[in-house]
Amino acid sequence: MIKLLSNLDELHVYIRNRDLEIYNNINPDEKKAALAIQDITEIANASTRAIYRILKDRVILFYFQIKTKFFFNM
Fold this sequence. Notes:
The chain has three helices and no strands. By secondary structure, the protein is mainly α. It has one domain. It is elongated.
């Protein structure tokens, strides 16, 4: 049991270090968005980055759809 708990502690440290490494390599806008999503939903860093990227892609797609409709309706 002690061995298993020791392995679990090592895994926790490894995951925390990778999370910090990833966080330090993302751009400032993604950091702000990730923190805002975390504050609202209280979810983990990896999940917030995934949500941010999905939302960003959808907003860009929506913007171009509106722009295209406006252009062709003139």
